[in-house]
Amino acid sequence: MRHEKAVEILPRTSSCKSNKKIIPANSSLNPQTSEEFPQTAACPRGRTGFSGLLRSLLHIISFPTILPTCRWLNIPTQFSITPSLGRKVTGTLFGHRRGHVTFSVQDDPRSEPVFLVELAVSTSTLVKEMSSGLVRIALECEKGQPPSRGGRPPVRLFNEPMWTMYCNGRTCGYAFSRACTDSDWHVLSTVQTVSVGAGVIPVVDDGRKSGASEGELLYMRARFERVVGNRDSEAFYMLNPDGKGGPELSIFLLRM
Questions:
Q1: What are the start-end ranges of the H helices in the chain?
Q2: Cα 51 vs. chain centroid, distance in angstroms?
Q3: DSSP 3-state of 152
């Protein structure tokens, strides 16, 4: 199987482009334990890591919500079709505790998302994975036949509609790229002043609580280093707030 092949990980360099391929890690790579956060939902400055913060987040949902309820903001009517991303981007993971987690990529915390994918795992499952050690997610899709052979026209990597998802070498199911909805934009707008942190967001729709069946809406936001291998491969490495240690979360996009 493809995900079991021995592969090389693209090095993190000062440039966002490289002529090497980006290949996901597999289950032979052992997770490493990282430094722990203080037991708080806010992200303080100093020597910190995400693992302890995420571990404490599993218990924080029984406390009052972290962010105040805000009014719905207007979603932009037109998103950029070919946005220009830099080497550092804002990544947000969010979703109801028992619902699927969504990963959003933005050029900055206040801009529209340029890539939004619903992953094949629940939010609580991903939080537990991250709290126990290093997590590497690979999203793979097929290249397909070229148009000359009756295939579809080529599309940008971010526009691929469906992905096979692997988490630390294990097959998890299918992830789906989608357009940003009103509820997605509500979450991103609510946390737009947060650069790094995790917590709980109150979900309000016309003044009434919703999503109770899937649990509280959790979020985690961080800066990611974006590395482009070629038109068929990109990677996002989560940056630790203290700037030390390796990435605790890496997400690879691969068209094979």
A1: 51-60, 123-132, 182-190
A2: 15
A3: coil
Q: Which residues contact 90 (CB under 8 A, 6 or more apart)?
A: 105, 106, 107, 108, 109, 195, 221, 222, 223, 224
Global confidence as pTM: 0.69
Residues 174 and 72 sit within 8 Å (Cβ to Cβ): no
pLDDT along the chain (256 residues), means of 10: 44 44 44 36 45 55 37 35 75 94 95 96 92 93 81 88 96 97 93 92 56 78 95 95 82 96
